[in-house]
Amino acid sequence: MNITKICCIGAGYVGGPTMAVIAQKCPHIQVTVVDMNVERIQAWNDADVHNIPIYEPGLAAVVAEARGRNLFFSTDVDQAIEEADAIFISVNTPTKTYGKGKNMAADLKYIELCARQIARVAKNDKIVIEKSTLPVRTAEAIKSILDSTGNGVQFQILSNPEFLAEGTAVTDLLQPDRILIGGETSEAGEKAIAALVAVYANWVPQDKILTTNVWSSELSKLTANAFLAQRISSINALSELCEKTGADVTEVSRAIGMDSRIGAKFLKASVGFGGSCFQKDILNLVYIAKSYGLTEVADYWEQVIIMNDHQKRRFANKIVQTLYNTVAGKKIAFLGWAFKKDTNDTRESAAIYVADDLINEQAELAVYDPKVSETKVLQDLNYLQSRTADENQAAISYFDSAYQACQGAHAVAILTEWDEFTDYDWQKIYDGMQKPAFLFDGRNILNAAAMEAIGFVYSGIGVVSSE
Ligand code: NAD
Ligand code: UDX
């Protein structure tokens, strides 16, 4: 079995970059990325490659190289399915907002629609690849739908979860820590696995391509995200203790991170983790554990989310308390809205929840983010349904410059660790603010002593504040 034509359903943060890199590294394979979102596909096809819908460092260049050669973006899902030997399903699997498993389980309606569409359209044998993050044993449901047509077409289901992180998607895809491929332990399953291994082997060393059974692969993805998020909640829990005891969380992180058994990565205390994956995937894990009656397992992982919610709320409370217990009518500048630097993605960004709490306290927020638009900021707040859209609009002003956003502010809060924030002329920002000028560094990116020397009342995460 030789894969020469790939179709990817879902042109989002995963489907777009992943397929662009496959196309760049495999010029002999035709890759068609399809989506039902017409605007998104138009943006991927925009003549100016800088207008593609996803901002990722290095992505525009990869798309520019492969697009029109062997990389295509289309809304014709049926045609792409029909032509392909291998179909990646890379659609969204958000937390359910209704019915059984509401606010916990993954909503698999888009996955099921894809499976039904493939079943309806396919005329020859296909490898169907789960690229989306899915609950363990989803492949069983997909297979049952695909096999239900009775038209003799054979399907092999593989699980090939994606481990890229946003903001570093292109380098993560070019130099992955590992590629994980799970498949059936039958002869046909092994052939399908080998075909997909051959695609990745065009640029990934063989020893980094790991093959497992389907269930291990599906569960490993949820597990990886749960472990990563757990590290952040663990260090954030300790950041609160540091603030009470005079220990400095950055020093604690460095001290424990040098233990090779612990490792230095993912130990940055912050205002709380965001992004479309961590919360959704842990909730899903909790739901799966509960559905098997594993209460202790479920409770254990749920605590990671509880701690993260606490960290976001704690940051907002600290701003209110420090500003003499009232922020009503006070201007608070928000530097950063994205859930991390180098992305325009705001899903589950801590900024949204901190803003929501402060608007409840009648603060006036002045927002600046290098990559996030005003429309997106308002959409994010409206999505919470805490108040009317008009009320959100009235509470938010949006600026194209951080200096303007901070002008006349009582406080500045850093929500995202954009590199440019460290290069600012903080004396100039201080000069334009109300006094005392408060600075809340939700990412510990500024030098506390330097900020205090300017005159700021500086407050980082996990350090005793200067007050
Ligand atoms: P996304 O929302 O950016 O993109 C999904 C796309 O699928 C959307 O454009 C949507 O229009 C399209 N779609 C949905 N149903 C469709 C259908 N039936 N036909 C055609 N198009 C359809 O989502 P994403 O961030 O790319 O995530 C996709 C999956 O990858 C999720 O399961 C997620 O958990 C997982 N994942 C995401 C990341 C990440 O960093 N974002 C990393 C690893 C894994
Ligand atoms: C995550 C996983 O890292 C990736 O492997 C998976 O495929 C998708 O989910 P992503 O959410 O894109 O990737 O970004 P990540 O770098 O993991 O950051 C997630 C959140 O944690 C961000 O809000 C980030 O600011 C925060 N974070 C990360 C911390 O607060 N401290 C850290 O030490 C690391």
From TrEMBL:
Top-tier EC class: oxidoreductase
**In its UniProt entry, what is this protein called?**
UDP-glucose 6-dehydrogenase
Q: Where does NAD(+) bind?
A: 10-15, 35, 40, 91-95, 132-133, 166, 277-280, 347
EC identifiers of the protein: 1.1.1.22
Indicate which residues the UniProt annotation says bind substrate. 162-166, 221-225, 261, 268-274, 339-340, 443
**Which reaction is catalysed here?**
UDP-alpha-D-glucose + 2 NAD(+) + H2O = UDP-alpha-D-glucuronate + 2 NADH + 3 H(+)
Q: What does the record give as its pathway?
A: Nucleotide-sugar biosynthesis; UDP-alpha-D-glucuronate biosynthesis; UDP-alpha-D-glucuronate from UDP-alpha-D-glucose: step 1/1
- Known Pfam families for this protein? UDPG_MGDP_dh, UDPG_MGDP_dh_C, UDPG_MGDP_dh_N
Supply the alphabetized keyword list. Answer: NAD, Oxidoreductase
Q: Which domain of life is it from?
A: Bacteria
Q: List the active site.
A: C277
GO BP annotations of the record are: glycosaminoglycan biosynthetic process
Indicate the segments forming the UDP-glucose/GDP-mannose dehydrogenase C-terminal domain, all copies.
333-448
State the similarity comment: Belongs to the UDP-glucose/GDP-mannose dehydrogenase family.
Q: Molecular function (GO) terms listed? A: NAD binding; UDP-glucose 6-dehydrogenase activity
Question: Could you tell me what this protein does?
Answer: Catalyzes the conversion of UDP-glucose into UDP-glucuronate, one of the precursors of teichuronic acid.
